[in-house]
Design a protein that fits this description.
Blueprint lengths: L1 E12 L2 E13 L4 E5 L6 H8 L7 E6 L2 E2 L5 H11 E5 L10 H6 L9 H14 L15 H13 L5 E5 L7 H16 L3 E5 L3 H4 L4 E6 L2 E7 L3
Parallel strand pairs: 3-8, 3-9, 6-7, 7-8
Antiparallel strand pairs: 1-2, 1-4, 4-5, 9-10
Helix pairs in contact: 4-5, 5-6
């Protein structure tokens, strides 16, 4: 599913070159649930951006479903993002003027799918995440947990090969965090590949495998008994 080989990423900070990733190699299988952990500056967010085709590596190869996306153009990467990757963010990234259905449909705006079919998909997914009674509510009318459920439904609208979750419980209380992680676990059991960044050990325990990073390198991989 996902395979990266000797990935490096460097940034220029004034006269200094900072290496955010230094020779990272790993594979993530289809229907795997993987969590990345590490302190600030460990490289986990940079790696997530590369896996999500939001950024390209300075050196190395990244294969997504067999295609090397590391050297693709911005236009090609945009197409890959839209068709193969679903994103869940800590801050939800919902548009305040749209209701739940409108927000979930958003990634389909530039597809060939009719608005009627897009609405049907959005309604189905909102029911799937337990929001059948909140479909016409706007973000400010919903709790943090409900907004994150909308974001999860939006991430699934294109039937993505992989869902990337960046601190999906970072803005939620402990009870709501457990509800969101139970939902992600159910999606994983239904066959969804999930890659998550978190700094919380109790959240990482929901994943099958935990990849720990430090100073731009993978320092350990641990399997969870889930």
């Amino acid at each position: 599913m996902l395979k990266i080989k000797e990935i490096e990423k460097s940034f220029r900070n004034g006269d200094e070159v900072v290496k955010a990733l230094n020779g990272v190699s790993l594979e993530i299988s289809e229907n795997e649930f993987v969590a990345f952990m590490g302190s600030s500056g460990s490289g986990k967010s940079t790696l997530m951006n590369i896996l999500g085709c939001l950024d390209t590596p300075t050196h190395g190869e990244y294969f997504l479903n067999g295609a090397n996306v590391a050297s693709m153009s911005d236009e090609a990467l945009s197409k890959v993002r839209n068709e193969h990757i679903g994103f869940i963010f800590q801050t939800f990234h919902l548009l305040p003027k749209l209701d739940a259905i409108g927000n979930v449909k958003l990634p389909l705006r530039y597809s060939n799918i009719s608005d009627e079919e897009a609405t049907e998909r959005a309604v189905h997914l909102l029911k799937k995440v337990g929001l059948e009674h909140r479909m016409h509510h706007k973000p400010f009318e919903m709790s943090g947990g409900q907004r994150q459920r909308v974001a999860i439904a939006r991430a699934l609208i294109n039937n993505p090969a992989v869902v990337l979750a960046d601190e999906p419980t970072g803005n939620l209380d402990s009870r709501t965090s457990e509800e969101i992680m139970a939902l992600l676990t159910d999606l994983h059991k239904q066959g969804q590949t999930i890659v998550m960044v978190t700094h919380e050990d109790d959240i990482a325990e929901f994943a099958e495998r935990v990849v720990r990073m430090k100073d731009g390198q993978v320092i350990s991989m641990e399997s969870n008994n889930v």
